[in-house]
Design brief:
There is one protein chain. Helices cover about 35% and strands about 15% of the residues. The chain has about 425 residues and is an alpha/beta fold. Strands 2-8-7-6-5-3-4 form a seven-stranded mixed β-sheet, with helices on both faces. About 45% of the residues are buried. Bound molecules: D-malate. D-malate (MLT) binds next to loops.
Length: about 425
Amino acid sequence: MARINDHYLKLKAGYLFPEIGRRVSAFGEANASACKDKPIIKLGIGDVTEPLPEAIRIAMHKAVDDMGNRDSFHGYGPEQGYAWLREAIVENDYRSRGCDIAADEVFVSDGSKCDSGNFLDILAAGGGSSGGNTIAVCDPVYPVYVDTNVMVGNTGGANDAGEYAGLVYLPVTAENNFTPPLPEGKVDVIYLCSPNNPTGAVMTKADLAKWVEYAKANDALILYDAAYHAFITENDLPRSIYEIEGARDVAVEFRSFSKNAGFTGTRCAFTVVPKSVTAKSADGSDVDLHRLWNRRQSTKFNGVSYIVQRGAEAAYSEEGKRQIADLIAFYMANARIVLDTVAGLGMQAFGGVNAPYIWLKTPDGLDSWGFFDKLLGECHVVGTPGSGFGAAGEGYFRISAFNSRENVEEAMGRVKASLK
Ligand code: MLT
């Protein structure tokens, strides 16, 4: 008899974004004629809307032509990514900021969401109470970190607030400036995301240094998600955890071309696994995670297509960098419009300055889903309920800056009219 992975049965409802999509579709169907006059505007999921930069498209077109010629055709590529892309990544994202990362420590992939989930393949499962890893996450948090840990059996069941037994939650709220506090006890694996999804907060070098120190002192591993690094506007904020001394001994970093270069539909990302990061085997010896991740990827992954990697490489050309900077400035101007609107309405808002997400305190004592329903019902505007990111997200609401200028202005005009 075939058996399922019972841990999946512990997962709460659907994954957040499909669940929002389902509710929005149901609303659209039930209010078809009103939605024809006032179309629904989605500022929920952080999905880019603007075209791929020209430099990237040109590189991809050329790569398609390469594939049409026997001499420049590419079959299977290296599972870790082509050397020219790994080298461009290291040169532009790491060496330029003084980080000691080598090209063969970069693993090109089709997404940070997949990589952050897949990384659990090479770590002991079962959770801290059964000799595996005790996992710490921020609350609120990008739901993938939690759900993937539930899937591999690192947690018990969820309570009514959606908190899973066995996970260590680090509340990030306005009171602590959305900076995760160090855990009281010892944890083995910590997920950090900066600029943060969903709060838009950014950790400073001093904040990160405390975590690196904690990880060293406790033999812990930091899984650092820097998917939104390109949205940082303030100079002295770290773009990478490797800007912190010692981080290459304790941290793995996830990066993506999705949000900066518009690759959500094109798919390209990378994970940095320094050769100096180790974790313990059952017999207590140190094993380097680079070797295990390489083994995992070589077995389960066949690499990102040549065409897409050529596009990603062009993100680092002079024109590519300029066009990406324009794209980011465009989304950040959207964020400004959202921030100005909600501030004008007297709402408390965070983020939106070094990140494409605005994190609001819901007005009038409404809970997160209550505010979601109000915005959808009155304005036909979709955001993301804070409680969908964790229990401490209750009473908050996320608005994404990823949309056209026209839609953001229209959406904010409606919000202003409805909430004034
Ligand atoms: C989000 O809206 O939080 C992100 O788009 C989700 C993701 O990047 O997977």
